[in-house]
Specification:
By secondary structure, this protein is an alpha/beta fold. The chain is 21% helix and 26% strand. Belongs to the zinc-containing alcohol dehydrogenase family.
Length: 382
């Protein structure tokens, strides 16, 4: 089979590898589509992503979908030909977490993730014609959701987790107005998995939301916020092309800050999706006193200069959002119910064009949003 393999900074190859064979409890996937993420670009450009450094050749890709091509012993309920996507995380060890983190498996200290060099040996991703996965990682696609759309379930899950994280801030879940914390029912501890024990976290009905950064994740946060009932979503970015995508994904208003235009003021809930340290000061200034900022854009791991004074003087709640727990299931249900993720796709390339595909989001002049790789032929097209 063919696979997209990074061997070092700037060294990307289409390698021939043996076709995998599923073992007990495993499923063989014939992959059809993959979405390129910023981490894939980082491995391609720099030979590393975050604190993970490339030591050996690595198959890229964690946003993938395809069809079941076979199953190993002990697998039931998953039949050949069924379209599926994949939850790319696998816990290493017993999976136990302290009670205060119960259910928040995205914070488990040892997680193997598709297309990651965090471990040695590395964890190959899914930018290949075939991939064996554990049956527990397989997520069947709902009727009417294509494999191209299914490959976007992973980044949409990241966006939906960020929206749910907003519910971890006091008063945001269910519109509680009596000052009670967590999910609005202080003391029951049921929001510990980031998914809200009473089902209300992430409900943004009637709220005004600002999303700073309208790249693929920011634009998907726009869609997730609208899906959760936000009355008005404002998207801000320095790129006109990105703002056009955000509008197509449901943004009610857009702000082009490339010319020095300020962000709107006194917004109760802000999602910071750019990951740019220089944006933190303006984002905090835009947040209403007592408001909440959800940090979904990855910030640098090294020291940076940032103006953070408003965090204190405006008593802003600033919370992080990392990957997701099981919101990939929510993402698939949302797509089934009509959430259209296709506007976020700007480019499509064949597997043999992988180097060009990865260079596209790395080039600011490309005007790209989500770049897709066709990994294999889908019956009847997309």
């Amino acid at each position: 089979m063919r696979a997209v393999v990074v061997h070092g900074p700037g060294d990307l190859r289409i390698d021939e590898r043996p076709d995998p064979v599923p073992g007990p409890g495993e499923v063989l996937l014939a992959l059809e589509w993959g979405g390129i993420c910023g981490s894939d670009v980082a491995y391609f450009k720099h030979g590393g992503s975050g604190t993970a450094t490339l030591r050996h050749p690595l198959v890229l890709g964690h946003e993938v979908a395809g069809r079941i091509a076979g199953t190993g012993p002990g697998v039931s309920g998953l039949t050949a030909g069924r379209p599926v996507t994949v939850h790319p995380a696998e816990l290493v060890g017993d999976g136990r977490l302290p009670d205060r983190l119960a259910g928040r498996t995205n914070l488990y200290p040892r997680v193997r993730y598709f297309g990651s060099a965090a471990f040695d040996p590395h964890t190959d991703g899914g930018f290949s014609e075939y991939r064996v996965v554990r049956a527990a990682q397989v997520r069947p696609l709902p009727e009417g959701v294509s494999t191209e759309q299914g490959a976007l379930a992973e980044p949409l899950a990241v966006a939906m987790h960020a929206v749910r994280r907003a519910g971890a801030a006091g008063g945001l879940a269910g519109g509680a107005s009596d000052g009670r914390t967590g999910d609005g029912r202080a003391g029951d501890g049921r929001a510990g998995d980031g998914r809200a024990g009473d089902g209300r976290a992430g409900d943004l009905r009637g709220r005004t939301v600002l999303v700073n950064g309208a790249g693929p994740i920011g634009s998907l946060v726009v869609a997730a916020a609208k899906h959760r009932g936000a009355a008005t979503v404002i998207a801000a970015d320095v790129s006109a092309a990105s703002l056009a995508v955000a509008r197509a994904m449901g943004a009610d208003e857009t702000v082009d800050v490339s010319d020095g235009t300020a962000l709107p003021r006194d917004v109760e809930l802000v999602f910071e999706a750019s990951g740019a340290p220089a944006a933190l000061g303006p984002v905090l200034r835009a947040t209403a006193p007592g408001g909440t900022v959800v940090q979904v854009g990855n910030l640098p791991g090294a020291a940076v200069a940032a103006a953070l004074g408003d965090l204190v003087t405006r008593e802003i709640t600033w919370i992080g959002s990392y990957r997701f727990v099981e919101e990939i299931d929510d993402a698939l249900l949302a797509m089934r119910d009509g959430l259209d993720v296709s506007p976020v796709i700007s480019h499509r390339f064949g597997l043999e064009e992988a180097a060009r595909a990865l260079a596209t989001p790395a080039d600011p002049a490309s005007g790209s949003s989500k770049v897709m790789l066709r990994l294999g032929a889908a019956p009847g097209g997309r």
